[in-house]
Design goal:
single chain, alpha+beta, two-stranded antiparallel sheet, about 60% helix
Length: about 650
């Protein structure tokens, strides 16, 4: 065995406590990567079983959905791991400065010094990586089982709303590459983490190493923040702040780990708050009526002449079908209204002369062909007659819904898109065939209180027409007995549109759903809930890694200063003054960590929300409770470690501490 490897092994054995902390951090890092890899392989197995080896027609999209989150989590874990584990090796290198100086004096080269530190990391990795692989497999197994329960809930919910039965499950799956990749990742993290302090140790002169001057910086004269600390905590507090400035490298790792902890807590709180905001927004938008939905499949393509999107409704539903099924559903004895929509066939040619300034100010509302997205709506005959009466027009008229709600960078904004004197709009299909549609009357937001006219993604142009074909029809009602009504509604739709389990959605050309709106929202939000659970678990584990680093480095910083403390006691510093100085240092560490951690903890979720709010009407909000929680947890951790180490210092002999090498 090489001499440097033997020396590193002896250091691992001698400093067993510090080595245990490094092994724990390395194991957690490996476990996190292994857990993420288990999710990736298990998710891949689920998609292969459900869609086939190539994921079907949407293979690229599914691979992106699976791999991008894994890549992001991997990068996050890598950054946190290197930061946290390198703190431990920096602390180890800091305590061994005198040893490095002695080695240099007897002829050790820079390469040998570097090898000693790197070998120490490899010895620790030899124990920590296998433990991490075992723990990560267990973590992945538990996580996949929890995720599988939510997948099962999705399947059960799909059955309850009479969607096509889905045979999908999330099996726990690992491969040899899971462990190869996780072990290789952990090895790189260990080498990088150990290499940084090793490189720094090689640059220090031998005489400075022997004197233990590494990391000590001269304090510039003049008034600085120490004056402020002295006013609050007295002379001892100012001295504590100067100690941190002189030994910036020793405290840098502690402050960085504490700041990362606050950042992670704030990220968790912010993303949880945004996830809850998305679900609340969807709930408010959709209401909570009982919904009976009939949806046609469609073929999508591009018109070769115009280049416009061309959509063909495979099973169009006419207003006659709508009225027939509405009458049958009303036999249950409750009020029911039906709304059918066609968003596929026509768009409205944009004309500045008929729109309001409010619509002109909406970004991106006009597409590249100079058209506005349009919905042609058919309703059941009774409801249509009522809407004509509200608009003050005769039955058979075209009624423009002169209201548009859109997501304005995270908040919903309601506007009136058209002028009151509009009498015609021009429609164009994918082949650019145009037709003028007469507008006989208008209805505004206050004229349409029903949930049927709420929409998560409404079009700027919506016209209620007396007849036509729709791609989907939804019946809205509020029965007293949901289960009984669901059975009745299923029997009604089965007469005309039966669901055959052996056929797919596209084979039949249509699909049926029966559910309360809140159940629909649960189905749509399964992914959000699942992602929140996985993210919470991973952040908690990364926090544990961070706090392990804080405990190790902060304890080491206090222990290696025993000689300094003994000298201060010998010149008259009391135990109370020493405690005040160390608590002052702790307060300075906490303050710096809070400032840095809060800044990044706000900036990162805000940047994520910048993209989220373009899709969902949810703005960033500071999670105040999580911020308070993060500060309290960090403060209690630092104070507790300081108190424990102070109690140990009280048992030391001053003379022996002054004589220590």
């Amino acid at each position: 065995m090489k001499l440097t490897a033997e020396l590193a092994l002896s250091q691992v054995k001698i400093n067993s406590r510090r080595s245990l902390g490094a092994i724990l951090a390395t194991s957690l890092s490996t476990a996190l990567v292994t857990g993420v890899m288990c999710f990736v392989t298990s998710g891949n197995a689920m998609l292969v079983n459900f869609l086939g080896e190539d994921y079907g027609d949407y293979g690229g999209a599914y691979k992106t959905i699976l791999l991008i989150p894994a890549l992001i989590l991997g990068l996050l874990i890598a950054f946190m791991s290197v930061t946290v584990i390198s703190n431990i090796y920096e602390s180890s290198a800091g305590k061994r400065i005198g040893e490095f100086g002695t080695l240099k004096c007897v002829g050790a080269t820079k390469a040998q010094i570097r090898e000693t530190v790197v070998f120490e990391g490899l010895w620790i990795g030899l124990v920590g990586i296998p433990l991490g692989l075992i723990f990560g497999t267990l973590l992945g197994f538990i996580g996949v089982k929890i995720a599988g329960r939510y997948i099962d809930s999705f399947v059960e919910l799909s059955k309850s709303i009479v969607m096509r039965p889905m045979e999908v499950s999330l099996p726990f799956s690992v491969s040899v590459w899971t462990y190869v990749f996780a072990a290789f990742f952990a090895l790189i993290v260990v080498i990088v983490s150990a290499g940084k302090p090793a490189k720094r140790a090689c640059k220090i002169k031998a005489i400075h190493c022997i004197k233990g001057l590494e990391g000590v910086k001269p304090v510039r004269k003049g008034r600085d923040v120490s004056d402020f600390a002295e006013k609050i905590l007295g002379y001892e507090g100012g001295l504590g702040y100067k100690n941190i400035k002189r030994k910036a490298s020793a405290y840098k790792s502690t402050i960085r780990a504490l700041a990362l902890s606050i950042t992670l807590i704030l990220i968790l709180g912010s993303l949880s708050k945004q996830a809850a905001g998305i679900m609340d927004w969807m709930g408010v938008s959709m209401g909570n009526d009982m919904l009976v939905s009939l949806t046609s499949a469609m073929d999508e393509g591009v018109n070769p002449i115009t280049g416009k999107e061309e959509i063909k409704i495979l099973v169009p539903f006419s207003n006659e079908v709508e009225d027939e099924l509405t009458d049958r559903l009303r036999e249950f004895g409750i009020p029911i209204l039906a709304v059918g929509e066609n968003r596929c066939t026509y768009n409205t040619v944009y004309d500045e002369g008929i729109v309001t300034n409010e619509l002109k100010a909406v970004p991106g509302v006009v597409d590249e062909f100079g058209e506005l997205e349009t919905t042609l709506t058919i309703v059941d005959s009774d409801y249509y007659a009522e809407l004509c009466e509200r608009a003050g027009v005769p039955v058979g008229s075209n009624i423009l819904v002169n209201a548009y709600s859109y997501n304005d960078e995270g908040s919903m904004k309601d506007i009136v898109p058209f002028r009151d004197d509009v009498t015609y709009i021009e429609l164009a299909d994918s082949a650019d065939n145009r037709v003028k549609l007469k507008i006989d009357g208008m209805l505004y937001t206050e004229d349409l209180p029903e949930n049927a006219f709420r929409s998560l993604a409404g079009d700027p142009v919506r016209v209620i027409v007396p007849e036509g074909d729709a791609r989907y029809i939804t019946w809205y009602c509020d029965p007293a007995d949901d289960e009984k009504f669901s059975v009745f509604a299923r029997s009604v739709l089965d007469e005309k549109y039966p669901l055959l389990t052996e056929d797919t959605y596209y084979d039949l050309g249509y699909n049926v759903q029966i559910s309360r709106a809140d159940q629909m929202i649960k189905v749509m939000n399964i992914a959000i809930i699942l992602g929140e659970i996985i993210l919470t678990g991973l952040i908690i584990l990364i926090l544990l890694m961070g706090f392990a680093s804080v405990i190790s480095t902060l304890s080491s910083n206090i222990r290696i200063r025993r000689r300094e403390f003994a000298v201060l006691k010998s010149v008259g510093m009391t135990r109370a003054a020493l405690e005040k100085m160390l608590y002052g240092e702790s307060l300075c560490c906490i303050s710096k960590a809070v400032v840095k951690g809060t800044a990044f903890g706000i900036l990162i979720p805000w940047a994520i929300n910048f993209f989220i709010r373009k899709v969902f009407a949810v703005r960033y909000e500071l999670p105040v409770m999580y911020l308070v929680l993060g500060i309290v947890v960090v403060a209690l951790t630092v104070v507790a470690i300081t108190k424990i180490e102070l109690s140990k210092l009280s048992k030391q002999n001053i003379i022996e501490d002054i004589r220590m090498d």
